């Protein structure tokens, strides 16, 4: 009888330990997924900040190029007017 009681206790403890291990693994999986989602969100924010900075840089470069093109066009118009006077 004592042998059956210790076997019953052992099986009960193993079943409870298995259930506890399963819930522990589920908790860890959810915690890791949450942490991964948070890390991904931080990385996306950093990427968005870099993209915004690059866009500002590109706009500044475009304004500079537009002013350079306008200066070249003004010089070309002056040269064109000079050539029309000579011809």
Set out the fold topology.
Blueprint: H1 2-86
Keywords: Membrane, Transmembrane, Transmembrane helix
Protein name: DNA recombination protein RmuC
Transmembrane segments: 6-25
Describe the model:
The chain crosses the membrane at residues 6-25. Keywords: Membrane, Transmembrane, Transmembrane helix. This is DNA recombination protein RmuC. The longest helix is centred in the middle third of the chain and has 85 residues, at 2-86. The protein has one helix at 2-86. By secondary structure, it is mainly alpha-helical. It has one helix and no strands. The termini are far apart. The chain is rod-shaped. The mean pLDDT is 94.
Low-pLDDT ranges: none
- Give the strand tally: 0
- Radius of gyration, in Å, reads 37 Å
Q: Measure the end-to-end span.
A: 125 Å
Strand content: under 5%
Helix content: over 70%
Shape: rod-shaped
Treating each run of at least 4 consecutive H or I residues as one helix, how many helices? 1
Biggest sheet record: none
Order of helices and strands: H
